Amino acid sequence: MFRRTEITVLFLLAVVCANAQGFRDKLVSAFADSPDSTYIDDLRGYFGTQLSVFVKNSSFSVDDLGNLSSLQYNCADSSGSVSCGISYKWLSFRLGCSMGLFDPHRIGRKYDISTQMYFPAVTLKFTGNVYQGYCLRNTRTLMPQWTDSSLYERPDIETNVLRVSADYYFNYREYSRKALTSQGERQKKSAGSFLVGTMLNRNVVKADSSLIPSMVSDTLFGYRTPMSGVRNLLVGIDFGYARTFVMPSKWFINGQFAVGFAYNNCVMRLSNAPDRLYNTMNMYFQGDIYCGYNSRRLFFNTSFSLLAIESTIGREGVNINNVNYMVQATVAYRFKPEKDYSVGEFFREKWRGWRDGKDDN
Hints:
The chain is mostly beta strands. The chain has four helices and 15 strands. The strands form two sheets. Strands 2, 3, 4, 5, 6, 7, 8, 10, 11, 12, 13, 14 and 15 form a 13-stranded antiparallel sheet that branches.
């Protein structure tokens, strides 16, 4: 689970997002142009509710560069997840958990939290997740003596991620990112945009013992340093392109990709020795594909998202690769409040109404 520091960070992000009207106004002043109504239908005054069902996989590999082999770990909880979300004006928030959460026989757990803030040209995204319990996908390849029908399981392995990213869309007056994620806009005509982004990513892999099982053959995987965990802190910049194709009857297809370069501060945790610190340059790739339907009231889409980060520890002769992908189906419904609230006013008003109604009972 999250440690206290990480819980505090997520709580502060939520508070900032709920009370950041002044901060938002200052940023928007730098991008004062409104969207082109020929291409984008502005639905920021609508409150959106959404329900998503998704399968999200977290995997990482430890690559031995000496003999070109790798330990390939997948999250053991392969069940789907469900999330509920809300969106209003520049804020979008979603919280999800695995549908296998109440299965007493599972060895894995998955928790996800994300929120986005939208400005005319810039999208800010905050993401946190915890995955616990992994299995070695290539067990039979690296452990010739393994006779069990199941894969080698490591319930002690845990990964957690905190990520902050910002993307600037050059053609923001014609291309809408919000139409895909927060449903605060609707793309009316096909359009695309080049983008530039930046990312701060903290990724931790930790275990009670070495990530390299003793049963793994020395000849098949020669790297034997007793590594019990890795902490990567990446700061990167990426470049990409996104485009939405609008089809008849309000259907659409969208694709987005970006390639980035990052400075990585890496700490390798060892089972029987002091930690080792490395600073490296790495690459990462992000890609999204969407297909769906978007009217003023109803939104539906299916999507595939991929994030791959390579962390090379050159002096150790080993790579740590993290790959996350998600397949998702989302349904959202929008309605317009009785008056035009700011984000903070809207939630305060709803809280007062709920509190007063509870007191009356």
